[in-house]
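User: Batch of two.

Assistant: Item 1 of 2:
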Amino acid sequence: MTNIPETGRTQRVQIRLVVIQVLVFSLLLTLGGRLWYLQIRNGQEYSDEAKNNHVQQVVQPAARGSILDARGVPLADNETRLVVSASRTELLKMDDDGKSVLTRLAGVLGMKPKEVLDKVRLCDAKTPQPCWNGSPYQPIPVTDEATTQQALTIRERAEDFPGITAEPTAVRRYAAPGKANTAQVLGYLSPVTDEEITKAQDTDSPYLRSDMVGRSGLERTYDKELRGKAGVTRYEVDNLGRVIGHAKNDEAEAGSSVVTSIDARVQAVAEYELNQAMKIARTEFDNNTGENYKADSGAVVVMEAKTGRVVSMASLPNYDPNAWVGGISAKDYAKLTGKNSNFPLLNRAIQGQAAPGSIFKVISSTAAVNAGYPFDGHYPCPSSYSIGGQTFKNFESQGYGDITIGRALEVSCDTVYYGLAHQEWQKDGGNSPKKNPKDWFYKTAHQFGLGKETGIDLPNEVSGRVPDREWKKKFAAANHDAWCKQGKKDGTYVEKIAYENCLEGDKMRAGDSVNYSIGQGDTLVTPIQMATIYAAISNGGTLYDPTVGKAIVSGDGKTVQEIEPKAHGKLPFTKKTRDEIDEALAGVATRGSAAWRFGGWPQDKIPMHAKTGTAEVYGKQTTSWFATYTKDYSIVMTISQGGTGSGASGPAVRNIYNALYGLDASGKQDLKKALLPTPQKSLPKIQADGTIDAPTIKPYNPDSQKPAGEQTLAAVLGRRD
């Protein structure tokens, strides 16, 4: 026997081989099973996912619907412009990523190369505007103001401009028919944000990255209806972004049009007259401040009395909404939002808050009657009213003896309301109020709809303020420490007020109540609130939600959804009280504080009702208010730092009525010249192809609208109402 081991397999080696074989077969079996699971059982699912990961979308924006006036005249629509766009997909195929092409393009368009390069770069958290926040596979607009010659140059020299197109494209246009700007009512558009896309992705109206979104006004309120549905073409691309096939195509659906209750002709008149009133006010001297009135802003609302529909809404200063089309420049944005801009983006008809002055007295009159004071009772109207050591004067210290509440409305006697409010304050417990005080004057203001939004179909309406006991307590709690720090018993006027507020700022004092009764103090209202109130007095007491939208018309014209007027309350008076207030307001226009503005008015044919107001604001000049109504319309105008109610706003309001009813200087009516002698009821005519028939608008001629016996503001300097 030899000691050399056998070279064949031993038992130990065989066992090891068996173990290895088992492991190998197990691994192969596992791998095979996994491959079967991925490729056969779930193969289609993963195949679809892989395919989707390589599908890119190119969006064809839907034509945005138009915003039309009540007769079908376009206020906002689309116009065809020559848009020059760049394809990033094509540019990135070039050695220099298309920089040379874009530089040549800048030369043709008269732009700086950096400006063009910035426009086609993609937006991210670190990239400032301008940049592109849409799909990188979509043509990126470089300019929408290309000339015909520029477009021809690009197309004729296509070999020099690969990836560049110059095509006619629909772009938003704010037409301003008849010079009716209507900016704050219409609003403007800007690109959708990532946050908005995420928020809307699971709704019935998701956004695409290419969408332009309404940011204010009707563009925002009716954005969903106006936007329509964009068309989407899907392309298969490889991992380098190269298109390798066509996947699917969804056709675009045009947006619906919004028919409004705005009449472009009346809108043009209202804007012109408001602007003229402010210009004239700036030429007049304010004896109280020793300088001309600033008349820095203003608003006017023309409303249908029986429906709450807004016929015109103007706010100054205004702006050109076309500045936002195609992206607003940094320079223009600063002009609209900077400290010295006076904030023209604000719609002061629904966002401007001010003390109402004497136009508030219709509310105080109602409160007094509801508290038990007869409307035709007699109440003292002395030249002043004293409470403790404080004297509250009637305007120009003029007294009228004992008069009715109706007469107090006509001549705007402050001391009548001082006395009534003071008596109610005493009945409620004075400085030591009862557990449940009646608070008639504050309760009635809430019932008139003040202190909350009217519900108008425009965004960002403000609520105003009724400074009742609850508000006083909250306001005092928030400001107590500041008052105590600032207040001085024998300091300046502001320091004395702060001192008093530090001690008892949470109490409803007698001075607060009497000031409140004439629309002064901490009370704040908006023009739309007061227009709604005066319209309700006209129609018998129904408070309507003001509306601008009148109907939604589908892009093909086959579907029309009317927006019906909706009431949100009733004024808190009886028919008898309403009729008494109505008669008194007619007296204001015929023999009271507004009579000199309505000389020659055909009162027998078109009864006019009015109330003037001049609100005092600490540290500023007086605010002019003029509130009016007929059986058809209510018109309210206000001018900040404009002077007196009838002095500054009165002529403009009269001229708007003249235009509505077709009245000349003597009050003679010519219905052929009347813009809207009765409110527009019917919708504009829709053609068979879905287009809407729109009449032409003639320019407003202000010379034919001057009221008889027109006086200058200088003749009434110092007149409060």
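Item 2 of 2:
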Amino acid sequence: MVKVRAARPAEAEYLTGLVMRSKAHWGYDAAFLARCAPDLRIRPDEVAARRVVVAENGRGEVLGIASLEGAPPRATLGLLFVEPSAIGQGVGRLLYRDALRRAVDLGVRRLVIDSDPHAAGFYRAMGAVAVAAPDVEADAAALVRFEAAPVPLADWARAWTGGGRAVHLGNVGEFNAQFADATLDPEQRPAHHYACLAAFYSPYPAALVLPRPVPRGWSELVCRQLGWTGVEVYDGLLDADPGLADAVRARPALAGLLTGAGLPLVPWGRTRPFGRLAGRPWRPGELRYESKSAAHALFERILADGGHPGIVLPRQWRADGRWAAARMLAARTRAGETTVLKSEHGVGGSGTTVVTPERVRAAGGARAVLRRLPRGPLLVEEYVGGPASGADEGPRDLTYDGFVDDAGRAHEVGGAVMDVADGCYRGATVGPGVVPAWAEKSLTAFGTAVGRALAESGYRGWFDVDFVADGAGRLAPTETNLRLTGPSIAFMVAARLDALRGAGHLVRIADRVELGARLPEALLDEWCAALARGCAELGAVFVPAIPTAAFEPAPWLGVLVAAHSREVLDAAEAMVRAEALAVGAMFGPP
């Protein structure tokens, strides 16, 4: 195992030799290396002042060297060189991440890197941002300047799990099943795929507990991309029943291992079986605001107190039965109004249907529309119209994420922009500047008010508030989700990447990236590793988020991509989607 330690003054001459061997690896001639030698020399009396460290293997062999020079708030990565025989083995990555960690501890907020042109791809892949390109025609050896912004783990992320690692329980199916909603798959097959998101319930897991088997190559790639080590995976615990917490309790040795380590136990959402596993009392009505009508009533109470001029609440009515819903829909259709029909519960847009007057007429009337919807109680809601056709629409669907800790304190995480089509959630993007300035204040203020109200009601855990933007620059809250969500996963990954690679990451989660063919597990692993390399060349990070759906008859993959700019983020997503559709070409013509 390779570890980092402080360099010793007596090693200065040897380390200088390592630096020169590493520089020579790129094919420079003797005359050029001689000119570089004075700048690359390490003197014994400089080792401590330049904060020189080395990477050393278990046999005591030095494989690389790095220095962190200067004083806060600006510092320089003066040296980062790897023994030629060790290049490509992760030594440079280890030294770079260590330099960022030490920079944070010193209070450095700007790290400058003057890179050899041959190492530019490495720094780009590590998340550094190029700020000056060399004139390669004038000087092929000219240095490339990069910068990184070292930051500690976000305050909210430290508060979420107490600043340490956690055990993640992928109980998505168990959470959904407790609502017995007609719009949810009773077998919870999609939910078991989404349980793979348990990898990302906090910025750094200690263990993942999953209902279905997952590819080993997937967990290894995720750990490599996010700099995790020592993550235990306990998978394949269920055959059909959605009760993951009870499946763990049925294995006393596993339950004792997971609950006896003193680590937080983080579920997708709270359930009675989870309460038994975690030794946490189940509070009656704890999840009452998961109901869309209860959430609407909560929004009404908050708005009745005033102070939210940027928020508008659509009217909502509960239909006593299907015929009552049909009468309401017919009346609204005659008035030329578009209507939203909702079930009390649902995930990802399931149970929510937008019905235009044209659609009602094309279906043959309101009763015909309702016959095509799942059975169960219905809510009838006003449709919130967006900007006029041709106007600069901006984001239409936004969300606020936060959580209530065990002491009842509400914490703000942030806002995100969701990708929603025909009422169905498809993904989300988080990061600096994602939420437009006109929406940020209203979204944050109202989301914070909802968090306080949830805390007062006794709820503890993650929550979000979803919004739709209207045509007048206002936000309409549509529901709360009292669980982790797709955007929450993006926030967790952004927090980890900011601490690992420097501040300012944009992270996008795409729930369904369609694959052109099913791949054998080994080939899927190779393909995902190739995507990770391709994104790294762009300066982006690729993380496969939901791998198990890749083996479905109609295969798909959930993915995360991250970058420091919108342009690179969009380019990385476009590449991933194009490569996914082209998967079938790997097998040649039929």
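The CA atoms of residues 302 and 449 lie 7 Å apart.
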